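batch_manifest entry 22 of 60
target: Bax inhibitor-1/YccA family protein
source organism: Pseudonocardia nematodicida
requested by: lab member K.T.
priority: normal
notes from requester: please return tokens only, no post-processing; we will run our own comparison against the previous entry in this batch. if the run fails, retry once and flag.
--- input ---
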Amino acid sequence: MRSTSNPAFRNLPTQGQGGYATFGSSGGGMMGGASAYAGSQTSSVDPNQVQETGRPITVDDIVQKTAISGGLALVAGLLTVMSGMTWLALPAFVVGIVVALIVIFKQKPSAPLTLTYSGAMGVALGGITAPINAMYPGIAFQALIGTAGVFFGMLVVYKTGAVKVTPRFQKWMMGAMIGVVVLMISNLVASFFTEGGFGLRDGGPLAILFSIVVIGVAAFSLLMDFDAADNAVKAGVPEKYSWYIAFGLMTTLVWLYIEILRLLSYLRGD
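--- output ---
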């Protein structure tokens, strides 16, 4: 069974007496800053695995839950910008990260937690975007359209089979994900000792190139997210896991939006 760079999908139910397929994963960086996770695949049945029951998941379930989560994030972001309460960005971001860790390590799907994450990250992104949009009018809309374009573009790429999610592709993506995370952390540490660190986030040519690479990694991560969702539908996992899949897709979309916004700010900077 294939894996995904998104740590959320590693907790989909494994094969048991109910006939569900085995799910495992190798995890990556949520929004480019989380730790890399590598998990082995196995076809054996875990005797401690609790059998999951419920109506089998459908594509409509995943689409609906993802749309609800994304819509909530968008509304929360717009309200934050319109109210001028951009100071909520940092606490909302902290809440989002904490909730994300709870969802990942709780190992159970949760609609309230998924919606809480989406709402919190919407507020955080709204707070981050507002001052940047004031400096570069229209950049928020451009970043939003860019994120949606990449999402649907990669969905077309996945559905047409232009890029297939093979074990070799997964290994390449895992290496790219780890490399990006290591570079981000190294640049952050270096910035404490030298101005601009390694120049990966200072808006210069190297920063623009690095941002493009990160966007590329995030975009191709969507392919593995789509593959995990597709496998969940084929395996007939319970419908409640549609909230878990929606959460996983949201983490990638949040990361993608932040990187696109960052790149646009570089390109529009003086």
